[in-house]
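Hi C.,

You asked whether I'd gotten around to modeling the 87-residue construct. I have! Everything is below, sequence then structure, no commentary in between.
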Amino acid sequence: MASLSMAPVSIFRHGADEEKAETARLSSFVGAIAIGDLVKSTLGPKGMDKILLGGGKGGTVTVTNDGATILKAIGVDNPAAKVLVGE
């Protein structure tokens, strides 16, 4: 008979953070709220423009009120926020 190992298996890469229970839930809420707050002022007939500055030497400047353009331009590391952004 084959022997089954009951040793724990790590599925995270070395140096990854692990959040559990309430901490993970709160982190998800914070990420989703931050994304909502970012694009909220661009919505509707009185939506305001946002100025996006590109990094690096070129430093391109983009003025837009398109939420999709804004979300593509930002870097997101929160898992719940990534779902909303579509990464």
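If it helps when you're writing up: The mean pLDDT is 80.

Thanks,
B.
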